[in-house]
Write a structure and sequence with these properties.
The protein has about 450 residues and is α/β, with parallel strands linked by helices. It has two domains: about 300 residues, Zn peptidases (Aminopeptidase, 3-Layer(aba) Sandwich); about 110 residues, Alpha-Beta Plaits, CATH 3.30.70.360. Helix content is about 40%, strand content about 20%. Helix 2 packs antiparallel against helix 4. The protein is elongated. The structure holds zinc ion (ZN) (2 copies). One zinc ion (ZN) binds next to loops.
Length: about 450
Amino acid sequence: MPSIAELKSKVCQEIYRRSEEIIGVANTILQNPEPGFRELKTSHLVAQKFVELGITYRDGIALTGVKGIVRGGNNGPTIAVLGELDSLIVSDHPKADLQTGAAHACGHHAQIGMLFAVAAALAKSEVLPFLNGNVALMAVPAEEYIEIEFRNTLRKEGKISFLGGKAELIKLGEFDDVDMAMMTHNTSVAAMKKLTVGGTNNGMVAKQIRFIGRSSHAGGAPHQGINALNAAMIALTAIHAQRETFRDDDTVRVHPIITKGGETVNIIPADVRMETYVRGKNLEAITDASNKVDRALRAGALAVGGRVQITTLPGYLPIINNSDLVDLYKINASALVGPEEMGQASHRTGSTDMGDVSQIMPVIHPYAGGAVGTSHGNDYLIKDYQTAVINPAKAMAMMVIDLLADGAAKAKKVINNSKPNMTRQKYVSLLESQIIEEEYDN
Ligand SMILES: [Zn+2]
Ligand SMILES: [Zn+2]
């Protein structure tokens, strides 16, 4: 029976041996960016790689998700390793798709590289007979919560229930056979160094907003119209006026955009649409800020004598990193990159649907460096693929060995020590209760 150190060395060697192929997978995805629930090429690539590795899988989960399973020699817990399939839309990014504007300005292409690396390491390095348990290799759709109107249409058509990929997978029961989960996100924040684990994230709700006025000739008869764009402008100002009431500790973020400002320039706008998130550190802060935003939106409609439709949708819940998994990750990660290359985790004001998974099971969501530029900006690029893909893939493969070798003693300890915030059913009910459609007609 090989030792845990020998098993770790085997998976790391397999990843090292395949480095070029792994980085190639990430680069193929970088060249073919696709936004959430539309990741058809990316999803197909993952499935093709699973076939090459002889891994059984299902695809088309939540439209584009792919779930492969590798089984250890003996029964035991199931660990999910996740990678996110989707890109953003940043049309002036140097790697943007010319037709769609899609671009990997958050580094998710690197995550699929890591997922493939972990899959190859487990399937091809002869470690599986010595593991007690399984690994679910999950390529998940739609982490970036964008194109809210498009996704809300998918929801109304019954194609999805929630607008984020992991929430949808939880609802579909794809996490029912999973005991704990991990993924690694990339970062360009220098203080986070090569690998960082821990810390917290904001949660959020999302809103799709439609101001309805009355169209009329913008030059000849503006008095016969009701200007929905003016309603939106007043609402935006009213939202800004709430900001002094947000407490610093709650790290509230509200950042609306106008997605439709009118039809043509010579018509008083009668249909103006906006999207926004309302983010905060905890559910109370999010709910409080969300109510204030709704009030501000109604104020815009009231002022011009128009109407506003507000659809509030569940977004993401704040993340909890499991402390046992964090401790274990720190040991593996610092063995790989050295303790001086481990960054400090703190509170992040962005959001992730890994937060949702963390409400129902033990989770870690570490960060790997190797990126430069501004996250979600047109200059965000992965520069150092060793740091961005190879190291974090090795760290996750080592975690799997630690957790499932030795009769899965460590995985069992994590499960026994953990107390998830809620059951899957309670989670789904919570999200369903967050869907609120309101029409305000003054
Ligand atoms: Zn992002
Ligand atoms: Zn991201």
